[in-house]
Amino acid sequence: MKLGYLVVAVVIVSALAFLYYTYASPRASVGGGIVVAVSIAPQADFVKHVAGDRAEVVVMVPPNADPHTYEPTPSQLEKVSKAKIYFMVGSGLGFERAWMDKLVDLNPNMLLVNGSEGISLMDGDPHVWLSPKNAKVMVLNFYKGLVKVDPAHKGEYKENLDRYLEELDSLDAYIRDRLSGCEERAFLVYHPAFGYFARDYNLTQLSVEREGKPPSPATIESCIELAKEHHISYVFVEPQFPTEQAKVIAEEIGGRIEWLDPMPEDYVSGMKLVADRVAEELG
User: Fold this and answer.
1) pTM of the model
2) What pLDDT, in 10s, does the model give residues 170-213?
3) What is the CATH number of the domain that holds 238?
4) Cα 134 off chain centre by
5) Strand stretches in the chain, DSSP E
6) Do 157 and 142 form a contact (C-beta atoms < 8 A)?
7) Which domain covers residue 190, as residue numbers?
8) 265 φψ region: left (φ > 0), alpha (ψ -120 to 50), beta (else)
9) What is the domain count for the chain?
10) Following DSSP, what letter does each residue of 77-111 receive, concatenated?
11) Residue 92 contacts residue 126 (beta carbons within 8 Å)
């Protein structure tokens, strides 16, 4: 009799475990997730906010790598070959110009989503995501593509989308408030990644690197003069680029280097940090 009770108990526990992992576990409900490939880390954050646990995200350019020159690894290419969607930046990013055709040849069945569709592009500046207003457009473009490959969960994705768009509106308001009282409007960066940010918030971006080339002695001298003219004390540098020339300029103006990350893994927190650092510089 005791053996019979034991068998029944085992059967019940097994059945409950099956039901839990089938219906309660997010991984089981996703069935492994829709594989979504993106070029850079901020896009991965966009995908996670809209798709939630229903997407497995493959980031092609690591956060501290140069998105203009990076070459993918064999393991990354293998993951892209399984992707349902490739969410492009779509604004002329160097990585995409060099590799997009190859990635499409590798996986011709994946849906291409152009994140920059509907954005007013600045000539020669691919960094569209560094504007919350543009980020909203990119997120919406991704949502539309996601619904194409997974229409069954459209309602869930729409709720996630609306919630994140509100968060991006709050981010925009935060940045405007942080920069509203600043008398100076010019800031100096090594790599000119913040053109869209500057355009949105009525700022002037000055850069050390120009046309993708390391600065010449004449360019460095010009940056020193501009920094003095605009009362600049910070030279902003990015983790993806060298700092030697920036340090030279900072020493000459009696200032210091500060870090700005153009590829934050947590987009909202990263952009708030950008706004805080620039506001400190502008006074």
Assistant:
1) 0.87
2) 999 999 999 998 989 999 999 999 999 999 999 999 999 988 78
3) 3.40.50.1980
4) 12
5) 34-38, 55-59, 85-88, 111-114, 186-189, 204-207, 234-237, 256-259
6) no
7) 181-282
8) alpha
9) 2
10) HHHHTT-SEEEE--S--HHHHHHHHHHHHH-TTSE
11) yes
